[in-house]
Structure formats: structure tokens, C-alpha cells
Amino acid sequence: MATRQRLEKFKCEITTREYKLIGQSITANFPSGFPDAAVKIQREFAGRRHEVANVVDPEVMISPYMCNEIFATYFACLEVREMTHIPEGMIGFQLPLMNYAKINCTNKTIGEAYTKIFEWMGANGYKQKFLDNSCPIEIYYFEDNVEEEDVEILIPIKD
């Protein structure tokens, strides 16, 4: 397997994407239930990801979430080309074309990255779009034998 190029840490930019996703979710109290709930559903889904068909890249886990400071629902998904079959206990959904503020980080610097992306958004006049056909996304890259895995955080922004 080819080695993937590492992401430039804390690089901020705007990206536009849409996603077709199939995966599993968990809902837990926020913030007390996290990050434990996220780790739990990611591990559970990692063991089932082989069940998902038409996958764009099986080594990339996409984790949208919804949070209201009381509880959060967190997803562990794979991007698919088509949603022809949704395995038992999973959900399939599409996130529409959206502009996102994006920052690169690692699984060990996520907290710092959230602080930096919101600072960058404020400094550049961007405002987060809340729940209107949108949700923030964390993207994880499965990697073997590395101390820190690359992560991207996408925050939907108002047009």
C-alpha cells in the first residue's frame, strides 16, 4: 500500500464538498460522554466497515456530528458512491453540497485545532452554519504503525 502524504498541521482553508455516507451513530451526554462515545462508535464501526458496499476509500472514516451542549449524536461512516445497500443497524444519508472551513490536525491535537479553526473563521469573517442541512465533520485516516493519525475538521459556514 502506498504511503499517504501527511497533512500540513493546522492549515486552514475553505473547501466545498457533498457526501454520501453509510455508517453507525451513538448519542451521549455532552460534554461528559465525549470523547469516549466517539471512540466507542468508531471502534465498533471499524470492525464492520467491510460490510459497506461502493466505498470511495475504506481507509477514511468520516464522522459528522450534531451537538446542542446537552447531548450529541456522533457518526462513524464511510463515503460511498451509491447507497444501494445499507447494512442492518447502519444508516445511509447525504450531506448536501456545502462550504466548510477546514483545518488539518492529528488525533492528538483535535482540541487545539478546534480553537484555531474558530479563531481563523472569526478573523476572516466566517460564521458557522448550525443544523440547516449541515453539521460539522471530523475525518480520520486509518493508518498502521503511526503515533499520530491525520485528522481534518470541517465546520459548515454560512454563505
TrEMBL record:
Alphabetized Gene3D superfamilies for the sequence: Regulatory factor, effector binding domain
InterPro entries noted in UniProt: AraC_E-bd, Cass2, Reg_factor_effector_dom_sf
Source superkingdom: Bacteria
Residues in AraC effector-binding domain copies: 10-158
Protein's UniProt name: GyrI-like domain-containing protein
Biological source species: Paenibacillus residui
